[in-house]
Specification:
The complex is a heterodimer. By secondary structure, chain A is an all-alpha fold. Chain A has helices at 3-16, 27-35, 37-55, 67-136. Helices cover 82% and strands 0% of the residues of chain A. Chain A is elongated and about 115 Å long. In chain B, helix 1 crosses helix 2 (16-38), helix 2 packs across helix 3 and helix 6 (134-145) packs across helix 8. Classes of the chains: A mainly alpha, B mainly alpha.
């Protein structure tokens, strides 16, 4: 195979290397890798890179010394504020529930009174109409 | 990060002392992920504080279906990405100086020479990651360092999975070129 053809095969193979763990290489790339030391070395670098990056997850970076205290303080302050807000909300809930209950009772009473007034009105209207008919006759 | 289940459970029940213990055990890991995404110590400290404030509210949502660390990393990357968006809206210029931070001493090798070599490679990796453009850095940190799925990454960043893949592969290409000498010696 000519040098130019070899170079083309290298270019094609190397395009796939960054995704080495995502897809299987086609047979022609696997065949090329058998005989191309440079491509084999480059693929090994991608594998070593991947292993190195994976090992960073357990390699913590030193946080600034003040950070732990700052987090604890902010969290405590937030928790305190939340407790105050929740307490106020519960209090409001009790007041609202009481008010709703009163409003509910008031509504029942108003509704009953309105109902009775309508019934009385209907009876009175019926009687007046009867009288009216009699008087006309 | 190693947070016992008993501490997590106590936090979910509102135990403030347990929450302080959780912060103590996990703040360095949260800070590390934040820093690797946002790229500078000031913003990383802000993200770390915001993560624990958010955790106060959402820790009850942790059901134990995934590892706690995986779940916490998801919360952290979410908060960090929100800060990146805010920062890009304000057009804030970010100072990238990896020299500002250093890795915590590791206890993963009994041979001091090997440990020092590994430590040095990790520091070089962090430095190379910090020099990547933000779009590439975010994806490579989430996928290759913290092992998140493309679906999760794409969802958090509001991009297509295909876009996330392209960014990852370009980031890997850049990192390989930057770290050629170290990687060839591996």
């Amino acid at each position: 195979m000519s040098e130019k053809a070899d170079a083309m095969e290298c270019v094609k193979a190397r395009e796939l290397f960054p995704a080495f763990d995502e897809q299987k290489f086609p047979p022609e790339v696997l065949g090329h890798l058998e005989g191309c030391e440079e491509c084999k070395a480059e693929l090994s670098e991608f594998r070593a890179l991947s292993a190195g990056l994976g090992s960073l997850a357990t390699a913590d970076i030193q946080p600034p010394s003040w950070l732990l205290g700052a987090i604890t303080e902010r969290v405590a302050e937030t928790a305190r504020r939340r407790a105050v807000v929740e307490g106020a909300r519960r209090q409001m809930g009790r007041v609202t529930t009481g008010a709703s209950r009163q409003l509910g009772e008031h509504r029942v009473a108003t509704g009953s009174a309105l109902g009775l007034a309508m019934l009385a009105g209907a009876l009175l209207f019926g009687r007046t109409r009867k009288h009216g008919v009699k008087a006309a006759a | 990060m190693d947070v016992p289940d008993s501490v997590i459970k106590a936090c979910q029940e509102g135990d403030q002392a347990a929450f302080e213990e959780l912060i103590r055990l996990s703040h360095a890991s949260v800070y590390s992920l934040s820093l690797r995404i946002v790229g500078n110590p000031e913003d990383a400290a802000e993200v770390t504080q915001d993560v624990f404030i958010k955790l106060l509210r959402v820790i009850k949502q942790f059901r134990g279906e995934a590892k706690f660390s995986t779940w916490l990393y998801r919360v952290t990357s979410n908060v960090a990405i929100t800060l990146l968006r805010r920062r890009s809206r304000r057009n804030v210029e970010v100072r990238m100086e990896q020299e500002d931070w250093s890795l915590m001493p590791a206890a993963d090798s009994s041979d001091p020479a090997v440990a020092a070599e590994q430590h040095s490679l990790k520091a070089r990796l962090d430095s190379a990651i910090a020099s990547l453009p933000e779009d590439y850095r975010t994806v490579v940190v989430m996928k290759d360092v913290y092992g998140m799925a493309f679906e999760e990454i794409a969802g958090q960043l509001g991009i297509q999975e295909g876009t996330a893949r392209v960014r990852l592969f370009r980031a890997r290409q850049k990192l390989r070129i930057m770290l050629h000498d170290e990687l060839a010696a591996e």
